[in-house]
Amino acid sequence: MFTGLVEAMGRIERTADEDAGKRLTITWPGLDGVLALGESVAINGCCLSVVAAGPDVFEVQAGPETLLRTNLGAKKPGDAVNLERAVRVGDRLGGHFVQGHVDATAVVRDRRREGEWEFFAFNIDPAWTVLMVPKGSIAVDGVSLTLVDVETDGFSIMLIPHTLAATTFGLLEPGARVNVETDVLAKHVQKLLGQSR
Known about the structure:
Layout: E1 8-18, E2 21-27, E3 40-43, E4 46-54, E5 57-62, H1 64-69, E6 80-85, E7 104-114, E8 117-123, H2 126-129, E9 137-140, E10 143-151, E11 154-159, H3 161-166, E12 177-182, H4 184-192
Antiparallel strand pairs: 1-2, 1-6, 2-5, 3-4, 3-6, 4-5, 7-8, 7-12, 8-11, 9-10, 9-12, 10-11
């Protein structure tokens, strides 16, 4: 479980094909200590287990389902990623409940400046917008955000300068693909009401 509050921007150092999956080596600048083997880390919002680690660096394996549903398979050495360790019992929950289970990817349709803020609009499969509401929560590339508007095939958000500087959002341009996790509470309500995607 995560909060969607990104701790650091890491960098993909290496990628290696492993059968139908990939192994990613990622640097974590300023990491305090060494990650434990088996520890969960959200990488662009995707929960993966640490399989090797050293000072400021760790490795994860991404299987076929992860590569299908996320943008991690397209990442190359030098690309930046958002990083967050799993929340501990007793930690502050400043974002919202994020499982690290990416539902789908969305594409940046528009980015524009509005004063000190930045407006982003995304296109996504309409099957996922039924789980979104204006002013509701969403995780985009692992960042807990508040939805501004929701359309049939898209949604929008507004970002403050800190979020732009501390996450990969500052690097995003129209056409970029991002990972999306809808609110877990909305998924459970949908299932309880008998509405299938």
